[in-house]
């Protein structure tokens, strides 16, 4: 008993240390965004660091600001209109993908779970295979198809492939497999069609799965970088995730504020749907 308790204590400490390592950059970014320009320049100046020599330079990292100020946020909202424009570019990319993927994934997952047709398992295996391919592999055929459709320099070149991302189908099918098929059979015996079964029986039962997919899709699409660089050539039409790299090359205080504000939507979505995400992951693993 004592050995088990010690093992649990060790694992707890290890998880706490890992958690601190992950949280520290986020905490540092947010607190530094509340510092004045002078304080940031003093902390991150390599000329007068607390340790320095000819080969290495060290900087001072302070988490708690001496004076809390919102001047960095005021600068990006009032003096950097490009930032707001890029923010709305991210919104225009993310929400069509989010809505489209939820609709397409739920319908296709229902088809793979309830309907009976030839070669269904082979087709589903191909979905899994495509899902496992790296982004760099699938981006090449996506670019070729976008060029054929004459949409390679538009948001559609990014939105359409991500709407049909097979990950959502695979995830929601796991939820639907937990759903008792006897309910579907009983509804069919009462004369219910697939539209009624899908909207009135299946969707309410997989609510946690839909929310989980929505959270994961939002986080993934909000952080789009590679697709935007490849398909969108005009810099003023690129999302904020790409624009942040150019902000980081300027004033470091503005970079902290920009990164903090950029992360707020992701944190809000995650904290709001954390319970659904945890329940969804547990439910999806009940039946393979």
UniProtKB/TrEMBL annotation:
Q: Tell me the keywords, alphabetical order.
A: Cell membrane, Membrane, Transmembrane, Transmembrane helix, Transport
Q: Which Gene3D superfamilies match?
A: MetI-like
Ligase found in the keyword field: no
Q: Domain of life, per the record?
A: Bacteria
**GO biological process annotations for this chain's record?**
transmembrane transport
Q: Where are the transmembrane segments?
A: 12-30, 93-115, 122-143, 155-172, 252-272
Stored CDD domains: TM_PBP2 (cd06261)
Indicate the principal place this protein occupies in or around the cell: membrane
* Membrane disposition: Multi-pass membrane protein
**PANTHER family, per the entry:** ABC TRANSPORTER PERMEASE PROTEIN MG189-RELATED-RELATED, SN-GLYCEROL-3-PHOSPHATE TRANSPORT SYSTEM PERMEASE PROTEIN UGPE
Write the protein's name.
Carbohydrate ABC transporter membrane protein 2, CUT1 family
Report the source organism: Maledivibacter halophilus
Q: What is the lineage of its organism?
A: Bacteria, Bacillati, Bacillota, Clostridia, Peptostreptococcales
